[in-house]
Design brief:
- Helix 2 links the parallel strand 1 (29-33) and strand 2 (60-64).
- The relative contact order is 0.18.
- This protein folds into two domains: 19-119 and 248-315, Bordetella uptake gene, domain 1 (D-Maltodextrin-Binding Protein, domain 2, 3-Layer(aba) Sandwich); 122-240, Periplasmic binding protein-like II (D-Maltodextrin-Binding Protein, domain 2), CATH 3.40.190.
- The strands form two sheets. It has a six-stranded mixed sheet with strand order 2-1-3-10-4-11, with helices on both faces.
- It starts with a helix and ends in a 6-residue tail after the last helix.
- The chain has helices at residues 2-23, 40-56, 71-79, 134-143, 159-170, 186-194, 209-213, 260-273, 277-284, 297-315, and strands at 29-33, 60-64, 86-90, 110-120, 122-126, 150-152, 179-180, 200-201, 217-222, 247-255, 289-290.
- It is globular, with a radius of gyration of 22 Å.
- It is of the alpha/beta class.
- It comes from Bosea caraganae.
- Pfam families: TctC.
- This is Tripartite tricarboxylate transporter substrate binding protein.
- InterPro entries: BUG, Bug_dom1.
- Residues 1-23 form the signal peptide.
């Protein structure tokens, strides 16, 4: 009897020690978004979180940690306890903080799982703006003094700032001819646009969809090779003779060092999430392209993306060292 009791206790102890792995996650997971509520990443991550909850069978709480052009949120993800209960969204800005002299944070500082989505850059103006076409806008930039017109969409040196500099350069205009007004994402920048604080928003019209539908703003260009199915009346950069395309990506990430078994649970659940019809439809209906990368594909993409962006940042005079 004593031997049976000892054996039973041994089995119980073994099961108890294994339980944390078997049960993971056994409480809510937090998903950090480095940008303001209502913006492009926030929209993507909330759609994704709803699907991930269904796959993990646990709540996934989206938490916006803004500031520093996304640096605050990205740093929080990188330095979080690597127990699998903190994941987050990474945006292109993490590729450029080091070039901008904002610290040592790079894509290698966090564990990047895969891109979840792509959204194209555009040029959006207030509904009553005198600029009816991109040609009108570019003419005003050329004819006016440097800095007379203002743009926004993210922090200084962020993805939409690069988009702005790139399209100006493609038009034969100095990339810094338009003054950049930093913001904590697309949502606050669009509020500034309709209030008259800036001239153009160079983020994605997907972030501006509610305002577009309400007639408060107009998108006059997409920085794409072809027209976008969600915006069939908006010309692409290629068709107006501008050799510049730009898209923003949003990726799933975690702090480095998450135990392999837990990482696999998160990775597999995320992959299943991106295959869910409700998640894909939720993104596509908003004009967002859902993505799940093959192994190695994301690393190669980020390398090329970073090199291209750094070239524009150099033209803008923003790179350090």
């Amino acid at each position: 009897m004593k031997n049976f009791a000892k054996a039973t206790l041994a089995v119980v102890a073994m099961l108890a020690s294994a339980a944390p792995s078997w049960a993971f996650p056994d409480r809510p997971v937090q998903l950090i978004v480095p940008w303001a509520a209502g913006g492009g990443m926030d929209s993507v991550m909330r759609i994704f979180a709803n699907g991930l909850e269904a796959e993990l069978k646990q709540p996934v709480n989206v938490i916006n940690r803004t500031g520093g052009g996304g640096l605050t949120g990205h740093t929080f993800i990188a330095t979080a306890t690597p127990d699998g209960y903190t994941i987050g969204g990474a945006s292109p800005e993490i590729s450029f903080y080091k070039s901008l002299g904002l610290g040592e944070l790079t894509p290698e500082s966090i564990d990047l799982f895969s891109r979840l989505s792509l959204i194209p850059a555009g040029i959006t103006v207030k509904a009553d703006s005198p600029y009816k076409t991109v040609a009108d806008y570019l003419k005003a930039v050329k004819d006016g003094p440097k800095g007379a017109l203002m743009a926004s969409g993210t922090g200084v040196g962020g993805s939409w700032h690069i988009a702005s500099g790139g399209i100006l350069k493609a038009a034969g205009i100095a990339p810094d001819a338009v003054r950049w007004v930093p913001s904590n994402g697309g949502a606050p920048a669009l509020q500034d646009l309709v209030a008259g604080g800036i001239t153009v928003f160079t983020g994605s019209p997907i972030e501006a969809k509610a305002m577009l539908d309400a007639g408060r703003v107009r998108t006059i260009l997409l920085m794409t090779n072809e027209r976008h199915p969600s915006f069939p009346n908006v010309p692409s950069a290629k068709e107006v003779g501008l050799d510049w395309t730009y898209e923003n990506w949003f990726a799933l990430a975690a702090p480095k060092g998450v135990p392999a078994d837990r990482r696999k649970i998160l990775f597999d659940a995320a992959q299943r999430t991106m295959q869910r019809e409700d998640v894909r439809k939720g993104m596509i209906d908003r004009g967002i392209t859902p993505v799940w990368d093959k192994p190695g594909e994301f690393d190669a993409y980020v390398k090329t993306f970073t090199e291209r962006g750094n070239a524009v940042l150099k033209d803008l005079g923003l790179t350090k060292g």
